Amino acid sequence: MIDYDLKKIRAVIFDVDGVLSCDTVTVDTTGEPLRTANLKDGYAIQYACKIGLIVCIITGGNTEAVRKRYEMLGVKELYMGCSVKVKTYKEFKAKYSLSDDEIIYVGDDIPDYEVMSLVGCPCCPADASVEIRSVSKYISQRRGGCGVGRDIIEQVLKAQEKWMADNRAFGW
Hints:
It contains six helices and eight strands, in the order E-E-E-H-E-H-E-H-E-H-E-H-E-H. The chain is an alpha/beta fold.
């Protein structure tokens, strides 16, 4: 369980590669990386968006497939091609007048380190790098791409008494 006051969380930010997708990619004949997507993560993300939790993606990747996937799930804050994530994080935080302690960031590797050192509740998958595990308040038992998004969103919404709280939970 996440050892943090999850009732104050207003936003959850996810990296994609190694967090919402597995940390390996197949490359098609044009050189485009093909990513995995976990269905339970997808359900949790779309439900969280419906009930007002701010879900944000900050990723170094920049593919149309990833953009379409998360837009389809209702994610409004989608930042792709981010080479320095801390700059994007600060812009996102200001846009919503959020404080660091109202934010969870879920990352898995060195490009996530700066942001994870700022947020109130840094989290990571079980297979995150040693450096990222060392700054995380919560290390999911799930590997990247295998339900870590669902794990974290479900804990937040249960703490806020919003998980399965109304009929919006029973559909996509």
